[in-house]
TrEMBL record:
Domain NAD(P)-binding, residue spans: 3-323
Name of the molecule in the record: dTDP-glucose 4,6-dehydratase
The protein's required cofactors: NAD(+)
SUPFAM superfamilies named among the record's database cross-references: NAD(P)-binding Rossmann-fold domains
InterPro entries, alphabetized: dTDP_Gluc_deHydtase, NAD(P)-bd_dom, NAD(P)-bd_dom_sf, Sc_DH/Rdtase_CS
Record key words, sorted: Lyase, NAD
Length: 357
């Protein structure tokens, strides 16, 4: 079996669903169920014996080690993290705790488990760490995309905490020979994306008749990757990646935020026209920029393409249509995650925010 951390979050739950759709190898899904974790994402696996869910914290190394010894996984795929940049600005402590201390505790438990393995089981074991392109910092308009050798220059508490976790993973390979793999991916989008992040927030706010908040001038550029393409990349790296190496994952889809929001409004205008005949674009509202906002991310994914034969299957045009349709088809999922702590976050991030341009 494989041991997945954070498998109730956005990418983790897509990965678990994808994994069990393609193979019968069981998954132990270990997740703390923070505000971002949602077992409803995994509802289709409710009676599936291949999926074992355990609620727990990666900072609890003893619990992790006991589970590893009990279930004897052949690999760990590590998604668990605090993942939202804006939250890291309002409250960095939890990012240091989970992303740095938690990854450290997980590495220690995994190393103890792996050290005791023997023969083929030891040789086959893998620890795959899922990280982000944000560790490389920000690009100018004419800079080449981030490659695996771009120096780290994280600019937010979130990206600094992910960078620290990447360095720990690297050091465990270098020092202990621990069998690590690291992936650094660009912005994902798709089903089960929590509506604190740009794309699902815009889809939800548009339908609710609320403002569509654009930070600063909206000309910040991100590279967008459909989440199932990220899942495929992780499977490829887990199967054939070289130990100790890192692989950049991206969709070759650089877009300015304002263009992303315009695209979403246009798709919604055609799939769910407004009753008053207007456009969702009329709801766009400029708000004060994110502090330290990185201007541009772009990923050079040629190593993964060349060495492991991976390519994204979706273009932004196909992936974003599927995504909008998924949100239109699943209003109860959105309503469910918007209850509770979500309202408090919206108040913290938007209500007292000054107007922008
Ligand atoms: P998410 O916030 O949607 O989900 C995180 C999951 O981790 C949740 O289920 C949460 O309950 C769980 N978790 C948090 N703290 C935990 C802890 N201490 N112990 C156990 N579980 C814990 O995040 P996501 O967007 O799915 O991102 C998953 C991973 O991919 C993260 O490591 C993130 O840094 C990385 N990543 C995300 C993106 C993106 O665009 N979303 C891009 C590149 C890399
Ligand atoms: O690049 C990979 C990263 O992508 C991941 O490591 C992070 O976990 C993930 O959250 C994402 O980070 P971003 O900060 O790029 O994603 P977010 O959806 O928060 O914002 C995307 C862009 O949209 C960013 O430039 C900020 C902007 N934005 C965001 C929100 C929530 C707005 O203009 N308005 C908003 O209300």
């Amino acid at each position: 079996m494989i041991f997945v951390t954070g498998g109730a979050g956005f990418i983790g739950s897509n990965f678990v669903l994808d994994w069990l759709a393609q193979s019968d190898e069981p998954v132990l899904n270990f997740d703390k169920l923070t505000y971002a974790g949602n077992v409803n994402n995994l509802a289709s696996l409710k009676d599936d014996p291949r999926h074992v869910f355990v609620r727990g914290d990666i900072c609890d190394g003893e619990q992790v080690l006991a589970l590893l010894r009990e279930h004897q996984p052949r690999a760990i795929v590590h998604f668990a993290a605090e993942s939202h940049v804006d939250r890291s600005i309002h409250g960095p402590a939890e990012f240091i705790n989970t992303n740095i201390n938690g990854t450290f505790a997980l590495l220690e438990a995994a190393r103890a488990y792996w050290t005791a393995l023997e023969g083929d089981a030891k040789a086959a074991f893998r620890f795959l760490h899922v990280s982000t392109d944000e560790v490389y910092g920000t690009l100018g308009p004419n800079d080449p995309p981030f490659s695996e050798t771009t120096p780290y220059a994280p600019n937010s508490p979130y990206s600094a905490s992910k960078a620290a976790s990447d360095h720990l993973v690297r050091s465990y390979h270098h020092t202990y020979g621990f069998p690590t793999l690291t992936t650094n991916c660009s912005n994902n989008y798709g089903p089960y994306h929590f509506p604190e992040k740009l794309i699902p927030l815009i889809i939800a706010n548009a339908q609710a008749g609320k403002p569509l908040p654009i930070y600063g001038d909206g000309q910040q550029i991100r590279d967008w990757l459909f989440v199932s393409d990220h899942c495929t990349a992780i499977r490829r790296v887990l199967a054939d990646g070289k130990l100790g190496e890192t692989y950049n994952v991206g969709g070759w889809n650089e877009m300015a935020n304002l263009d992303v929001v315009h695209t979403l409004c246009d798709i919604l205008d055609s799939l769910k026209p407004k009753a008053d005949g207007g456009s969702y674009r009329d709801q766009i509202t400029y708000v004060k920029d994110r502090p330290g906002h990185d201007r541009r991310y772009a990923i050079d994914a040629r190593k993964l393409e060349r060495e492991l034969g991976w390519k994204p299957a979706e273009t932004f045009e196909t992936g974003i249509r599927k995504t909008v349709q998924w949100y239109l088809d699943n209003p109860e999922w959105v309503a469910d995650v918007q209850s509770g702590a979500y309202a408090k976050w919206v108040e913290t991030n938007y209500f007292n925010r000054e107007a922008g341009q």
